[in-house]
């Protein structure tokens, strides 16, 4: 049996990573005000709507509320590539 929490986390990371290129261009690593992360229940509901119904609004909500993660990953990758 798959770990639902781990699967959700990996999917959230994958969703965030797909947006990384655009976010890097938009933010330029400048501190921005990002939406707060979704609580676990709301994230799960959005994930299920996106997975079952390909609900674009649910997809966008997941991406938007994971922008902090995207910015963090982009910053880590940028910093490590400069070494």
How would you summarize the topology of this molecule?
Elements: H1 4-18, H2 20-27, H3 40-53, H4 56-64, H5 67-81
Task: Tell me what the structure shows.
This is RNA polymerase sporulation-specific sigma factor. There is one protein chain. The protein has 83 residues and is mainly alpha-helical. The protein has a domain at 34-83. The protein has helices at 4-18, 20-27, 40-53, 56-64, 67-81. It is elongated and about 45 Å long.
Averaging pLDDT over every residue, what do you get? 78
Tally of alpha and pi helices: 5
Flag low-confidence runs.
none
Biggest beta sheet summary:
none
Organism: Alicyclobacillus dauci
Protein name: RNA polymerase sporulation-specific sigma factor
InterPro entries: RNA_pol_sigma_r2
Keywords:
83 residues, 5 helices, RNA polymerase sporulation-specific sigma factor, mainly alpha, elongated, RNA_pol_sigma_r2
